[in-house]
Amino acid sequence: EFIEATETGETTHLKFRRDFDTGDANEDKVIDDEITYFIWAKGSADDIAYHAERGTFEVRILEDPLETTEIAVTGAYDDDEDFIRTKKFNENVTVTWEVLFQTQQIIFHVEAKTPGYVGFGISNSGSMTPADLVIGGIRPDKTPYFADRYSNGHSTTVDPSQDWILQEIRQTAENNTYFRVIRDFDTGDSANDIVITREKTNFIWAIGADDDIERHIARGSFAVNILEPTDPISFVRFEEINSNISVSWEVDPEKEVIVFEVLAKTPGYIGFGLSLDGKMEGMDLIMGGVFDDHTPYFADHFATGHRAPEKDAEQNWFLLAAREEANQTYLKFVRKFDTGDSVGDIPITKDDMFFTWALG
Questions:
Q1: Total-model pTM
Q2: Distances (CA, A) of 67 to 64, 70, 328
Q3: Which domains does the chain have, with CATH numbers?
Q4: Which of 4, 61, 102, 305 sits at a 20 to 30 Å CA gap from 29?
C-alpha cells in the first residue's frame, strides 16, 4: 500500500507498506523469518521498461537487529508542536486558539463586535443538539458573567462541572466583547462535554445585542479540525483511464465537495460513478451527454445488478457543464463527500473504492 513519495534533487524516496501474508498465494511471497532477497532496480527516467542499474541483497526481514534500542512508550501528542491559529467566522466574530500538546489544553481567544453576550463552543453536528459551550459578557454595570454550559436543544443549561476556565473577560475600546478561556482536550465530563480529538468537529457561536442570552442577533457554525494547525489542502488529480476516457477531480476538504470532469471519445452518453467493489450492484453513478440539438441531459442513478441503472429519487450529483465537440463528450459535475442518501449514494471517504464507467 502506497504511503508517500518525494523527489529531492536526484534522489527519489518511496514509502509503502504490506502485510507479512497478503493472502495472494499466486503473486505475493509470505514474509517470514527465513532468508530471502531484496531485489531492486532504478531508472534514469520514468519509463519502467528500462533500468539504469539493478541488484539483489540477502536479508532476513524479520530478524532482530544486532544492536537494539529501547523505545519509550510516549503519549499520543508527545511529538506534536504547539501552534496558534485564527479564524474569522464573519465580519463580527473571530476566534484564535492556542493548542498546547504537552499539557493537552487549548486556550481560546474569542472577540465579537457586540456589547452584548457572546456564546462559543463545540458541536460535532454543527447544531445545538448536542453542544458544549460557554456564554459570557459584561453587564452595563461593568460586572462580568460567564459559565460553562451544555445544550440538547434550543436552550442552554449551566454545566454542574465547570471545565472551561475563564482567564480574562472585558469590553474593548471598540465596544467589542472579548474573553480568553482554557480547557483540557478531555475534561473528564462525559455527560456534558465533548472530547477534542483529531477528528473534524464544528465551532458554534452566537452573539446578542445585549445581555439577554435567550435572544441572538447572529449565530453560525464552522467545520474545523481543532488540533490541526492548518486547513486541509485542496488538490486536483488527473487519470487517463484508457485511450477513450479520462477523468480529473478537484477535492475541496473544507466544503467537503468534489468536482469531476470526464472527457470521452464518444458522441453518445457517458456513465461514470463509484463502486465499493468494482461491481455493478450497489454502484452510485451519473449518466449524461449532449443531444443532437446541443441540449445536455444528466441524472444521478444507482445500479442494483447487471441491468439498466435506475434514476435515483434523490438527485445529488449536479451538472456544471456539458458539451460535445469533434465526436468527444465532456461533462463537469459536482457532489458532496456524503450526500446523506444512504439508499442510492456511496459516501466518499479515504478508503479505497473504484471508479466505474461506460460509454455509449
A1: 0.52
A2: 8, 10, 62
A3: 2-59 (no CATH), 83-224 (2.60.40.1210), 235-359 (2.60.40.1210)
A4: 4
C-alpha cell at 33: 523469518
Residue 17, amino acid: R
Cα gap 199→185, rounded to integer Å: 12
Contacts of 160 (CB under 8 A, 6+ apart): 192
* β-strand pairing of 11-16 with 93-100: unpaired
C-alpha cell at 304: 442494483
Over residues 112-117, the mean pLDDT reads 96
- Give strand pairing partners of 220: 205
DSSP 93-122: EEEEEEEETTTTEEEEEEEES-SS-EEEEE
Quickly state the pLDDT bin for 72 (edges 50, 70, 90). Answer: very low
- pLDDT on residue 77: 67
Grid cell listed for 14? 518511496
